[in-house]
Each structure stands twice: as structure tokens, then as C-alpha cells.
Specification:
Chain B: Pfam families: BING4CT. The complex is a heterodimer. Chain A is of the alpha+beta class. Helix content of chain A is 19%, strand content 31%. Chain B has 12 helices and 29 strands. Classes of the chains: A alpha+beta, B alpha+beta. At the A-B interface, helix 2 and helix 8 of A face helix 1, helix 4 and helix 7 of B.
Chain lengths: 504, 607
């Protein structure tokens, strides 16, 4: 006979928890599958309910923002270059400009990048003009707010000399709270007096100026050394201390426009460029040569090296797709990422190398997983115009976009993530929900809730139109093949279609 | 550049490398990185995440020393064409299997088997002792005071016959007499919740998700009462109800009445979900399968029908008995998990059915005392209530495990108490709570049904229950249906033709190309030689299908047949010609081989 002792099954005191007895035998848990499915559906719905990815827009630009440069070693500092030659250094945590340089260049800013000094206070900003053919190196203590050395600051000594006394430079601009101590600080403090800041920016003189006959489309700094690369009609390598380029890298005799150039983050002397002649080219600084080149059907607008997998290179192409290449095998891309309905203008890897973000001319931003050809999420707002550059923040929490409408926007990289402290219980609940979605994400309603994204009508229509066109073209090709002699027209793999030739 | 390539490690060896070895590649490929004292070869680490340790190094084979093979994904996964998807599905499958195994192992320790096997009555069969001879008084004497006190009778004279129902944790009981006496109480603590006299006929009573609500099928309608006996709802849509069931995970109250309409009512929203006409008149009994949520109805013409709210016709309709079906019960125990169903007919037969194959009953036996009620216990004992008593059957034997006599009474309603060794019997003189040792599931799970549920835990469970309310569409005959990969949809000829080759699925393409994808991918030999000559000896020749497509096919076949048998001069000549050709060929071959020496002299002409 079953006889249960109350001592075992009732709480020992009024405050003690109720004793739990478990029996994991499946027959005592009927409907376990439907119940879990229901939980997964609820989890998917909650995920969509909490999906509020837009955090803030950083204004201040008079014209569209066409290039972005995150400081790779600081969490919350990003520089944006405008169409009118204005460069603004934003603090993401303070959500306001740290420094505005109104006439950094005549005409558009072609590219921005941060120098590689290990100390925050010493780091400078390199800006390249698209039309005026100059590169300028800017150094200012305004880049590191919270710096205590007032004397150096007020003396307007923004050059090298200022940093020598920078023993107390705080490492992270964003991590610092808005304290009372800094309120009286002029210009460089956390409570920035905008008038003083503007005056500071107007009066700021570049530490170095490098001149060239041609304008620059892009600039990227070496990860550790004091060298940087620019893209004009060739790729040029510069030393920070010299006003003339150290070397010029050209594949063959080509003098086509180079759109973008990026250094590899692991094998730091390797760099890649994409150009207007529909090519992607790899160079090595040590040999001073262009190593190899691939030609594709459409030109790529942007590129980015994977920070964790040294051989993986991401290209954002004019044909609306993104491609990853393993540079050991350049015959075909290793994955095609489809989803945009406009040319991809900017792309950037997350610091883990598992995901990346892309911004497109179709006014949307998409987030991708490295090994899935469909985007994980798509962001858009009514006011965001053509996106020209995107970047992940170094913490991988946020994504920044630069668009035509003159704003730098901050988005969460995980749309439904909670900002702010999360308790252990909450975190485990969130993780359980994610696991449920992952498990049931391919089934029925969970899938439709989880995958569905509302996009603006124009994009929706463009997607439909594009799908129809692609489908029609493929059906036509199929019919043509059916009615031609057997074996004459063979189907070509999608990944091979985009490639024209590899040159060595 | 080369250093980068080298540090990234080798590419997948399956791929062809077209790169020519250059002069520079003979130089040392890359530096070793210094980490503290040891040197680390970066290329070693670059391939680590793409490599896999052999399964022989798996945890299963190390510490325990057992030769248990490592868990492997289902073979059918190999059919999936997409590499990444296949890997994902295989991973999920293995982790499911591992979880199942671990769960079983944990459960073994959590719920250690009770001393004395299943905890039933044990007698010496050789001495002529029989368990069914043991009476309730003997059991009460033998068991402890706490258990003995669970044997009790509630006597109500002239109240009509009683129906009983337990809550899911077995803590509370509801009784209803046919003349309108309704009461609910916590039978373990002996605390009465409500007692009402309805003064009209009551045909069924059912607890809803907890003891705080119960539904009563009264003369005209179904009414819902709360714990204190206050009438909350009059469900007017349920006309003239005779039987009630409640699906706790779906929050569905199901009733069926004299008119034979099966009605599903969502009690969480108060919306009538569906009303299904059974077209079989007033059903004589109703039961639910607690594992699938399927409602079983027994009808007076001897059929049993299975219903879900998703279909207006019965899922299964089978002729179970000659004469009316009087009682149905489904087995919730571990060995069955809702698979087995018992039916009792007015013909005195008890039949056990397997839900996977309804064609024939598993076994049947007859009772002499006109069975009228059935109930399965948590450990799979079947109680059969009839005139003047209840018999309890254990295992598959037809001799009862226990007989519980009720002299001059018939057991109108019997119910095993969940998680206890109690059988409640409702009869014309009240209810009796009888002891059936070894019938109940001893180890409850407090996350599902807590016998000692506190107020706060009940509140928590109720809220969570509503959040996890299963949609009625998910009630299926096959409980494993959800999450399965869908079979290919059958399509009409026109639909198939309308799509171009590239719009077809992979399987269809393969099939079109003459490959049997199922056979190929399952690793079996493909039947490539379709021509006549290539028939293997073992395989039986495939029968040619006689497709009746087009006009006059039979006539054509007839003519074809006839043609073969016609022997005319041209055929004979042709055959001879072919034969002579073959002979000449053969001779030529033999001469070439030297088997025949052709004479070439003058005598050759004499052959």
C-alpha cells in the first residue's frame, strides 16, 4: 500500500520551500511535445514583442554620412564623415558629439580610420578627402573625454605634447559615469559645453597632412604599425611620418578606381581591395605586390575581413548579395547571402566572426549569421535613407549605421535583447526561450512568427518583383535547356555564376 | 600571403588545389608562436574545430569501460541533402537520445523501486491461496493505520446511484447522485468543500483543472460550480447532457447528450469550440485517452467511435461488441501510455484494444456479472464494475487479482484514485472507497500533479497551465505527429506538369532521372539495370502493371499477344538466317581460337 509521510512532503517550516518530488517517466508527462511546442510559440511571440532594435540616432551632420570609423579598441567612440567634408567624433554612450571638425576636407570625406597607438590618449583620427586629395591626421584630447589634465587641454596643445602628460587618461570614453567632478571641465569633460566644443573643432589643425593628386575612396589603418592604406586609382601604402606614399600596389597595369581597401586583422600585412573594374584584389605589404585578383560579374562596394577566421573575406556587392570567400580557394565564394534588394554599400563583421551586418542602398540594414544564406534580421525606419556604411561596435551589442539623411543610428545587434542588468533567473528564462525557438524554429507557427519581418511596402514590392524576375529567368533557362541538344547547355552552380576569372 | 595561408591550415582535402607550388613555398611556412614556455603550432589549432575525436574516445567508452556504442543519429537523417541541415538534424537527434537516456538513468535513482516488487498482495499459490480470496477486512488489518483509514463508506439512502470523479492529483473527490445530491471534498483531510442538493437528475460530474471548479451534467444543461458550491455558469449550449469529460491540457470541457452531439467547450475563454453530430443516437458511454486527448464514445449499436475537435467525422469507428458498448477506459500506465483501451459490452465481454491497430482486439474475456463500468489504475490494473461487485485484473490473466463484492448493489461508477491504491465505487447506497494494493503510481511528479499541493503552488500551476494551453488543433491520433517531417504531398497530374524541372523537389528530380532516391540513400542496391537481360537471380521479377490508360489498351495488348504466336514463312526464314549467321560467327571464333583446324588442302572441298 502506498503510504506517504507528511514529513517528507510538507515544508518543514512556514518559510521553507515546498518539497519537490520528480518522476521523469514519460507516461506521467502527457502531451510533452505539444506543450513544448506551445511554449516555443509563446517564446517566439515574446521575442518579436520585445524586438525594439532602434536605440538612438546621433545627429549633428549637415549632410549625409558616408563613412564611419569605430575606434577598434574603445567601446563607445565612432567617427562619421559627411558629404560636406565635416568629420564628427561621436560618443555612443553619451550620445552626443565629442568633437566636430566642420571643414576637415573640401568636398566629401572619402574615408576615416583610427591610428593604432596602444594608448587611448595618443590615438589619432585619419580622414581622407574624396575630392581634395588630402589625408589629414587629427589628434585631440576631446577624443578621450574625462581626461583630467586641464592644463594641456586649455593650452590647446592637441598634438603629441599633450599626450605626454596623459598619465591619467581614462581608457574608455563610454564606461565612465557622468560625475560631478567633470562638470566644470571645459570642452573635454563629460558635460560638454557645445559652444566650446564647436570652437575647439573649428580651431583644430591637423597634426599631419598628406597630399596626393587623386582623391581617396577609402582608407584603412594597419592594426599595429604606423602605416595605413588608401584607395584611389591604386592602393597606396603610407607611413604616418612621411608625406609621400611608401609604395603603390597595382595589379598588372590596371588603373581602375579602387573603391575600398581593408587590412587583414590577423595576418596584418595582408590587405584586400575591391574596385570599379569588378575585381577583388589581394596584396601583401611585405612583398609589395598584388598577389592575386578575382573578377566577378558585378562590382563589390565594400569588404571586411573576418576577425576570427583569418582567411575569410566578406564582400558586399552591387548585385544585392554578399559573398564570403575563403582566400585559399578563390574559384567560388564559400557562401552567398541573399536578401537585400539594393546594392550593398557597407558590411562589417561582429567581433566574434560569427555574424555580420550589412547596409544597403535599399534603406535597410540586415544582420546575418556566417553560415546561413538568409538574413537573421532586417532593420529599417521611416526616416533612415540610403545606408552607406555600417559597423559593429567592439562589444557586439550594437550596430551603427551611417545614412544619407545625416544621422548615425544605433541599433541593438539582437533586436529583443534587454539593455540593463539581467538577473540570473531572467537570464536562464531568456536562454530557455532561445533554446526552445532554436528547437522548434522550423515547425509550423513558431517558424512563421519567428521568421516574419515586416518591411516597408517599397521593399516588400521590390522583393516580390525580384523573386518573380529571378524565377522567370530560371524557368526560361530551364526551358531553353529542355529544347536544346542534350548536354549543350549545362546548368551552372549559383556560386560559379558570379565568378568570371581568377588571376594570379 | 603564404604565411596567412599556412597559418590557416589545410583546406578540405576533397577539393582540388590548382595552385602551383611556387619557389617561395619551400621556405619555412610560418613561425611558431611562443606561449609561455611552450611553442604552439598555429596550424594545429586552426584545424581543431573541424576535426572530431573518434567515437572510441567518447565518454561512454572511457570511464565505465562498457562496450556500449556511442549514440548515433537515426539512419534516415542521411536522406537529407543539405549538408548543414543534415548536421543540425543529426545533432538534435543525438542530443534527444542522450537526454532520453540520461532521463531514464536519473529516474532509476530518483524513484527507486519499492521494496516488495510492485507492492501488491503476495500469496503462496502452491498452498492454494489466491489473491482474489483476500477480503477488504484482511487488507485493512494488515496495512498500517494510515492506509487502513482510506477504506471507508459513505452511505446515502434513497439518493439514487452515485457518480465519482477525482482531481488529477487524487486529493479531492466529487460525487453526484442521480437524484441531485452533489458534494466535493478533500478525502484525505476529510474536509468538505461543498455539498448541494440540486433537486433534479444529475448524470455526470467532472472536476475542471483543479478542485476549485467542477462541471455537473444536469437534467437540461451543464452547470459549472466553484469550490463552495456556488453556481458560476449555466452552459446552455450543452442540451440534455449525459456524459462529461474534461481535457485538462487543452482546457476543453466535452459533453455528449441524448441527441448525440459531441460538444467541445473551451473553459478558459468560454467559447464553444465545435459541436459535432455523431449520427449514432444517444451514446452509452464516453471516455478520453489521457495521452492523446481523443474522446472515445460507445454507442448502443456496439460501435466505438474516436473523436477530436478537428474533424467532423470519427477518426476511428469500429464494431466493438454485439450489443451496446457500456464502458470504455484507456490505460495511462507506463507500459501502455494511452495505447491500450478496454471496452465492456452489454454482452458481458471485456475487450482490450491496441490503439496502433484497431483491426482486432488484443484479447477478450467475458464476465458473468454484467459489466457496466471500467477503470484503469496508474499501474495498469483494470477494474470491472458490474452487478454485485468489482473485479480487478492485473497482468493479462483472466483470473481477477481482487474481487470486491458489493452485495445487492451494482458498481455504477468506478474510479481509481491517481497516485494512491484506492478504488472509489459509486453505487445506489452512496460511495465506497476500497483498497487495491499495488494499483497506484507511487512516485508522483509535483510539477505535473502534486498530491500535497499548496495554495501558492496551485496558483502558480494554474497560471502556467493557461499559458501553456495546447491548441485544440494539436489533438491528433498520432501523438508523435508534431515535429515530424512531412511526407510529400500527393499531387494531381496537372499540378505536377505545371511546374518546371527546377521547381521540383530533389526527390522528384531524382525519381524523374530514373533513380530511386529512397533505395539509393538508404544504402540499398539501386536497381540500375532495367533491361531484360540484367535481371538478378534472387530478386523476383517485378510484375508489369496493367495500366488501363488511353483508348483500346486491352485490344492493343490482345493484338500484341497474337502477333507473337503467328508463324509465317518470313518469320521462319528470318529465324533461319539469324541462326546461320550465329553459327558462322561461332565457327569463325573457333577457328581464330584454334579449336577447329580448317583444312586448306585439296581435300577441303570434301568437307
Amino acid at each position: 500500500m502506498i503510504s506517504r509521510s507528511l514529513d517528507d512532503h510538507l515544508p518543514s517550516s512556514s518559510s521553507a520551500p515546498h518539497p519537490i518530488q520528480r518522476n521523469l517517466a514519460p507516461h506521467l508527462h502527457p502531451f510533452s511535445k505539444p506543450r513544448e511546442y506551445t511554449r516555443a510559440l509563446t517564446a517566439a511571440k515574446m521575442d518579436r514583442m520585445f524586438a525594439k532594435p532602434f536605440v538612438d540616432a546621433l545627429g549633428g551632420h549637415q549632410d549625409g554620412v558616408y563613412c564611419l570609423a569605430k575606434d577598434p579598441r574603445r567601446v563607445a567612440v565612432v567617427a562619421g564623415g559627411g558629404g560636406d567634408g565635416e568629420v564628427i567624433v561621436h560618443s555612443i554612450s553619451l550620445r552626443r558629439p565629442l568633437l566636430k571638425i566642420p571643414d576637415a576636407h573640401r568636398g566629401m570625406v572619402g574615408g576615416l580610420t583610427w591610428t593604432a597607438e596602444a594608448r587611448d590618449g595618443r590615438r589619432g583620427l585619419l580622414s581622407a578627402g574624396k575630392l581634395d586629395g588630402t589625408i589629414k591626421l587629427w589628434r585631440s584630447e576631446a577624443f578621450t573625454p574625462g581626461m583630467r589634465d586641464k592644463a594641456a587641454f586649455e593650452g590647446n596643445e592637441f598634438g603629441v605634447g599633450a599626450s605626454e602628460s596623459g598619465q591619467e587618461i581614462l581608457d574608455t570614453a563610454g564606461a565612465l559615469g557622468e560625475g560631478e567632478d567633470y562638470d566644470e571641465e571645459e570642452g573635454g569633460g563629460l558635460a560638454i559645453d557645445s559652444g566650446k566644443r564647436d570652437r575647439l573643432g573649428r580651431d583644430l589643425e591637423p597634426t599631419m597632412t598628406y597630399n596626393s593628386k587623386t582623391g581617396f575612396n577609402a582608407i584603412d589603418h594597419h592594426r599595429t604599425d604606423a602605416t595605413f592604406a588608401t584607395a584611389s586609382n591604386s592602393v597606396q601604402i603610407w607611413d604616418e611620418q612621411r608625406t609621400a606614399p611608401v609604395s603603390t600596389l597595382v595589379f598588372g597595369g590596371s588603373s581602375e578606381t579602387v573603391t575600398s581597401v581593408r587590412f587583414n586583422q590577423s595576418e596584418t600585412s595582408v590587405l584586400a581591395s575591391v574596385g570599379g573594374d569588378r575585381t577583388m584584389c589581394l596584396y601583401d605589404v611585405r612583398t609589395g605586390k598584388a598577389e592575386r585578383r578575382v573578377m566577378m560579374q558585378f562590382r563589390a562596394n565594400c569588404l571586411s575581413w573576418c576577425p576570427t577566421l583569418p582567411t575569410v573575406l566578406l564582400l558586399g556587392s552591387e548585385d544585392h548579395n554578399l559573398y564570403t570567400f575563403d582566400i585559399r580557394n578563390l574559384e567560388t565564394p564559400s557562401q552567398i547571402y541573399k536578401g537585400h534588394v539594393g546594392g550593398v554599400m557597407g558590411c562589417d563583421w561582429s567581433p566574434t566572426g560569427e555574424e555580420f551586418v550589412s547596409g544597403s542602398y535599399d534603406r535597410t540594414v540586415r544582420l546575418w549569421k556566417r553560415d546561413a544564406g538568409k538574413s537573421r534580421d532586417v532593420y529599417h525606419t521611416k526616416r533612415m535613407q540610403r545606408v552607406f556604411d555600417v559597423t559593429y561596435t567592439p562589444t557586439a551589442d550594437f550596430v551603427l549605421t551611417a545614412s544619407d539623411d545625416g544621422n548615425v543610428r544605433i541599433w541593438k545587434s539582437n533586436a529583443s535583447a534587454k539593455l540593463g542588468p539581467v538577473s540570473g533567473k531572467e537570464r536562464s528564462a531568456i536562454e530557455y526561450r532561445q533554446a526552445l525557438i532554436e528547437k522548434w524554429g522550423a515547425a509550423g507557427d513558431v517558424r512563421s512568427v519567428h521568421d516574419r519581418r515586416h518591411v516597408p511596402g517599397s521593399i516588400h514590392n521590390a522583393v516580390k518583383l525580384k523573386r518573380d524576375m529571378v524565377e522567370a529567368a530560371k524557368v526560361k533557362e530551364e526551358r531553353r535547356r529542355k529544347h536544346s541538344r542534350a548536354g549543350r547547355e549545362k546548368p551552372k552552380a549559383e556560386r560559379k555564376k558570379v565568378m568570371i576569372a581568377e588571376q594570379k | 600571403m603564404d604565411a596567412l595561408l599556412a597559418s590557416a591550415g589545410p583546406l578540405n582535402p576533397g577539393k582540388k588545389r590548382r595552385m602551383k607550388p611556387s619557389a617561395r613555398s619551400t621556405a619555412p611556412a610560418h613561425k611558431n608562436t611562443q606561449y609561455g614556455d611552450e611553442k604552439i603550432d598555429p596550424s594545429l589549432y586552426s584545424i581543431l574545430d573541424n576535426t572530431r575525436t573518434p567515437s572510441a574516445f567518447g565518454t561512454n567508452n572511457l570511464a565505465s569501460g562498457s562496450a556500449e556504442p556511442a549514440l548515433q543519429a537515426n539512419k534516415i537523417v542521411a536522406r537529407i541533402g543539405d549538408k548543414k541541415l543534415r548536421a543540425r538534424v543529426a545533432r538534435t537527434d543525438v542530443s534527444n537520445k542522450r537526454a532520453q537516456k540520461e532521463r531514464a538513468e536519473v529516474n532509476e535513482w530518483l524513484n527507486a523501486p519499492m521494496a516488495g516488487g510492485l507492492g501488491g498482495i503476495e500469496v503462496d499459490e502452491d498452498q492454494g491461496e489466491r489473491t482474489w480470496r483476500v477480503g477488504q477486512e484482511e487488507i485493512v488489518k494488515e496495512v498500517g493505520v494510515a492506509s487502513g483509514s482510506k477504506r471507508f463508506d459513505l452511505k446515502f439512502e434513497d439518493m439514487g446511484s452515485y457518480k465519482v470523479d477525482y482531481t488529477r492529483n487524487g486529493r479531492h473527490i466529487a460525487i453526484a447522485s442521480s437524484k441531485g445530491h452533489v458534494a466535493t471534498f478533500d478525502w484525505q483531510a476529510g474536509r468538505l468543500h461543498s455539498e448541494i442538493q440540486l433537486r433534479e437528475s444529475v448524470r455526470a460530474i467532472k472536476f475542471l483543472q483543479s478542485e476549485s471548479f467542477y462541471a455537473v451534467a444536469q437534467k437540461k444543461y451543464v452547470f459549472v460550480y466553484d469550490q463552495n458550491g456556488v453556481e458560476l455558469h449555466k452552459l446552455k449550449q450543452h442540451m440534455d447532457p449525459t456524459h462529461l469529460e474534461y481535457l485538462p491540457y487543452h482546457y476543453l470541457l466535452t459533453s455528449v447528450g441524448h441527441a448525440g452531439w459531441l460538444k467541445y467547450h473551451d473553459v478558459s475563454t468560454g467559447v464553444m469550440l465545435t459541436q459535432i453530430p455523431t449520427h449514432l443516437g444517444s451514446p452509452s458511454t464516453m471516455a478520453q485517452n489521457s495521452h492523446s486527448g481523443i474522446i472515445h464514445l460507445g454507442h448502443s449499436n456496439g460501435t466505438m467511435t474516436l473523436w477530436s475537435p478537428n474533424q467532423t467525422s470519427a477518426h476511428v469507428k469500429l464494431l466493438a461488441h454485439r450489443g451496446p458498448v457500456v464502458a470504455i477506459a484507456s490505460d495511462p500506465s507506463e507500459s501502455s501510455a494511452g495505447r491500450y483501451t478496454a471496452t465492456a459490452g452489454l454482452d458481458g465481454q471485456i475487450k482490450i484494444w491496441d490503439g496502433r491497430m484497431w483491426g482486432k482486439e488484443l484479447r477478450s474475456f467475458s464476465m458473468r456479472n454484467n459489466p457496466i463500468s471500467l477503470s484503469y489504475s496508474g499501474r495498469g490494473m483494470l477494474a470491472v464494475g458490474g452487478k454485485s461487485g468489482v473485479s480487478v485484473f492485473r497482468d493479462e490473466t483472466t483470473t481477477p487479482y481482487l474481487t470486491l463484492p458489493l452485495p445487492s448493489l451494482s458498481a455504477d461508477s468506478i474510479k481509481f484514485c491517481p497516485f494512491d491504491d484506492i478504488l472509489a465505487v459509486g453505487h445506489a447506497r452512496g460511495i465506497s472507497s476500497l483498497l487495491v494494493p499495488g494499483s497506484g503510481e507511487a512516485n508522483f511528479d509535483s510539477a505535473e500533479a502534486d498530491v500535497f499541493e499548496s495554495h501558492t503552488r496551485r496558483r502558480e500551476r494554474e497560471v502556467r497551465g493557461v499559458l501553456e494551453k495546447i491548441r485544440p488543433e494539436l489533438i491528433t491520433m498520432d501523438t508523435e505527429y508534431l515535429g515530424k517531417v512531412r511526407e510529400e504531398q500527393p499531387q494531381s497530374y496537372a499540378e505536377k506538369e505545371a511546374r518546371s524541372y527546377r521547381q521540383k523537389g530533389r526527390m522528384e528530380r531524382l525519381r524523374e532521372g530514373g533513380v530511386d532516391p529512397e533505395g539509393d540513400l538508404a544504402g540499398r542496391e539501386s536497381s540500375e539495370d532495367d533491361d531484360e537481360g540484367g535481371k538478378g537471380g534472387d530478386e523476383p521479377e517485378k510484375k508489369k502493371k496493367k495500366k488501363m490508360r488511353g483508348k483500346g489498351k486491352s485490344m492493343a495488348r490482345y493484338l500484341e499477344k497474337k502477333k507473337k504466336n503467328v508463324v509465317d514463312n518470313t518469320t521462319i526464314a528470318l529465324r533461319q538466317k539469324v541462326a546461320s549467321q550465329a553459327r558462322a560467327e561461332e565457327e569463325k571464333r573457333k577457328i581464330a581460337n584454334g579449336e577447329i583446324v580448317k583444312e586448306s588442302g585439296a581435300l577441303a572441298r570434301f568437307g
